[in-house]
């Protein structure tokens, strides 16, 4: 009801301004709880500010914590391991009218459910104790090939302690790198390298060639994909790359113009000692110039000694493919240094 005009002698209640100090103080007391946090604060805002997950870059994608559905505050997974275990008890009820056999069956179901819960807890504790929800610092500086190798040994993690498993991974990675280094050195030795410095230079040039070839293929593939013909152009680009690689291996003047083949021999000082025909030969059979010159020297010495009279006699002198030995022998025949 609307109050009329006040009569004389009645106490008038003065309307208080909404911005008066006393009213503001009372409203603040209602808004602020005992912990000093606003009671009317937006819960969504608080969750986003306090329970905020670490932001990952768009390239990294969702983290393993997000993919696993783990809630760090509740220390639970959603869904849990064996998430249907509770369905055993969903409609089970103990009644006074149950027979002894029915009661035993229900107790057995409870024991089975308890074991399933124990297994769920064991797996969750194992994940949290081993910190499997986050990237392993040991794998931070590993190559993709080495990380894939570590994944193969994850199955043995349950049989080792955390320290023992890390020692195992370090040993496996060390062995892998040693074997890879031995394989690279064997390849460099087959290419004619005799010192560690020459091998490192050869491997560096090889990696550079592979990177350049990969970038060239990616660039040509990208141009083909951007054209209006779509997938047909991609197929034609791959076909042209295959034809180019085949044409580079043909024994003709085309091989000397191949940029990839030039890169194969340009890293050796001995290249300047070869003729154009010899350079093409080294490119075609993938033979390093130092090894080619060494093979010529050994063959010439054996020919002059009378120990080598044909191609077959030279096969036992070198531990490489006989076809390459035959090509080098043919070059000596062209020079007039070997019998045909």
Under CATH, the topology of the domain at 228-335 can be stated as: Arc Repressor Mutant, subunit A
The outline comes out as: elongated
- Major β-sheet, in short? 2 strands, antiparallel
Rounded mean pLDDT score = 73
Annotated CATH architecture of the domain at 228-335: Orthogonal Bundle
Kindly report the oligomeric state of this protein: single chain
Order of helices and strands: HHHEEHHHHHHHHH
* Neighbour order of strands in the largest sheet: 1-2
Fraction of residues in H or I helices: 55-70%
Low-confidence stretches: 1-16, 18-59, 225-260
CATH class category of the domain at 228-335: Mainly Alpha
User: Given the structure, what is the number of helices?
Assistant: 12
* Spatial gap, N to C terminus: 128 Å
Strand portion:
under 5%
Q: What features would you describe in this structure?
A:
Strands 1-2 form a two-stranded antiparallel ribbon. Mean pLDDT is 73; it is low at 1-16, 18-59 and 225-260. Among the domains are: 63-134; 228-335, Winged helix-like DNA-binding domain superfamily/Winged helix DNA-binding domain (Arc Repressor Mutant, subunit A, Orthogonal Bundle), CATH 1.10.10. The radius of gyration is 40 Å and the shape is elongated. It is mainly alpha-helical. It has twelve helices and two strands; from the N terminus they run H-H-H-E-E-H-H-H-H-H-H-H-H-H. Helix 6 packs across helix 7, helix 9 packs across helix 10 and helix 11 (289-305) crosses helix 12 (322-335). Residues 213-222 have a biased composition (Basic and acidic residues). This is SWIRM domain-containing protein. It comes from Citrus sinensis (Sweet orange). Residues 254-340 form the SWIRM domain. Residues 1-78, 213-232 are annotated as: Disordered.
